[in-house]
Write a structure and sequence with these properties.
This protein has 264 residues and is mostly helical. The chain contains 12 helices and no strands. The model has no long low-confidence stretch (mean pLDDT 84).
């Protein structure tokens, strides 16, 4: 077999391994998935009418449409916390040291984690989206091309955050620390335009909310699904995704190339 064929085979094997782990131990994924769903239900049914009036909407359905794009991206952030924990477990339980003694394509270990996490993130987004549709979310006139672009943005965003989460898992001494290190991936959406417009925030806080990766991605997704203005947010979102993906990849590769952690 050629080197490329061997690399593809090993990556496929590692992907199956990670998907089997996710299927056998679904509690972590379910717990992380519940966070955006609970926030969706809380903000719609408890705060929906008040928040809709605050953004100039007519009723609760307007606020459902407003917050769903942000919660879809928040779902991706939640899912990648599980990736950091899984990578940390691999590094501390000794399996990586075993893999290093085997004739396998070494990057396949990380590639399996990344592809598996992206697939789980997309699946989680579909589940949260289904809940959103069930409680009244509707896309207003989005074309097939816009839906395709929205899906592409979600996958690219998941890929970027996953590589960052892999790096966080590699530097963490244990699974608990990995979960804590990755917590900003679920907290950053709370400091973005996911729940309220930037114009309604205090002036000193707007740059913090505006110049972070979630806000341009949220505004781009909102524009694609709801027909709102995208402006510069489109290329900013893509630039953030590509930059984070490249940063996460080289960070993860450099850490993985070092000495493996000893099992505790």
């Amino acid at each position: 077999m050629s080197s490329l064929s061997l690399a593809v085979r090993d990556c496929s094997t590692m992907l199956r391994r990670n998907l089997l782990h996710a299927r056998r131990y679904p509690s972590l994924t379910l717990n992380l998935l519940l966070t955006p769903i609970m926030l969706l239900l809380l903000f719609v049914y408890i705060f929906g009418d008040t928040m809709s009036a605050g953004i100039g909407g007519g009723d609760r359905s307007d606020y459902v449409a407003y917050i769903v794009p942000g919660l879809l991206l928040m779902t991706i952030g939640s899912t990648t916390i599980g990736t950091a924990v899984s990578v940390s477990n691999d590094m501390t339980e000794g399996i990586i040291a075993r893999f290093r003694t085997m004739a396998i394509h070494r990057p396949s270990v990380l590639v399996g984690h990344v592809i598996g996490s992206v697939l789980q993130a997309v699946t989680s987004v579909v589940l949260v989206g289904a809940v959103a549709v069930a409680i009244g979310f509707r896309s207003t006139g989005a074309t097939a091309l816009e839906w395709l672009a929205a899906l592409g943005l979600l996958v690219l965003f998941a890929l970027a955050l996953t590589w960052i989460a892999v790096g966080m898992g590699l530097i963490s001494p244990n699974a608990e620390a990995a979960g804590n290190n990755a917590m900003p991936l679920i907290l950053l959406p709370l400091l973005s335009s996911a729940f309220v417009p930037l114009d309604s925030m205090p002036g000193w806080f707007r740059p913090i909310a505006g110049y972070q990766p979630f806000t341009p991605a949220i505004e781009t997704l909102r524009g694609l699904l709801l027909g709102t203005r995208i402006g510069d947010n489109g290329w900013l979102a893509v630039a953030w995704c590509l930059g984070l993906a490249v940063l996460g990849y080289f960070w993860s590769a450099s850490k993985f190339a070092g000495d493996p952690k000893q099992p505790s």
